[in-house]
Design a protein that fits this description.
about 140 residues; alpha/beta; 5-stranded parallel beta sheet; globular
């Protein structure tokens, strides 16, 4: 396991600014977010980069807004992350950008987190990561 929890951020492109702000807060707290704006460069094979991000993360953050389900890309990421949660034991966190965001049936069993409560999101990631790895992680605040 890496020194810091690595989390894949899945979201609809219209929510990019909101998710970037959260990714920056995660980084400041010592969490390593895979956010496409930092991980995919011009000329990259973006599908390969997304697949690499999905493969290397210990957790998936699925950011849900009113617009999420209109994206086939996000739906595929949800499918992949859900499969990895069942088969590989990765952590999965639905994060509500909008309180009335629609929720796919696959995500209903998961505890949902509020994107406006970043401290709670960070604490939840660290707590779950500690349980997953069996060792405490130092938290940079």
């Amino acid at each position: 396991m890496p020194d810091h929890p690595r989390v894949f951020c899945s979201y609809r492109s219209v929510d990019k600014a909101r998710v970037r702000a959260i990714a920056e807060q995660l980084t400041a707290a010592g969490i390593d977010p895979w956010w496409d704006g930092w991980e995919i460069n011009p000329g990259d094979n973006f599908v390969a980069r997304i697949n690499e991000g999905l493969r290397t993360c210990a957790a998936g953050l699925i950011f849900l807004s009113r617009d999420t389900l209109a994206s086939n890309w996000v739906q595929h990421a949800i499918d992949t992350l859900s499969h990895k949660a069942v088969e590989d034991g990765i952590l999965l966190f639905p994060v509500l950008l909008d309180p009335d965001a629609p929720l796919l049936a696959l995500l209903r069993p998961y505890h949902r987190l509020d994107a406006t409560q970043t401290d709670a999101l960070i604490a939840t990631i660290y707590m779950a990561y500690t349980l997953l790895t069996g060792c405490a992680q130092s938290r940079i605040v």
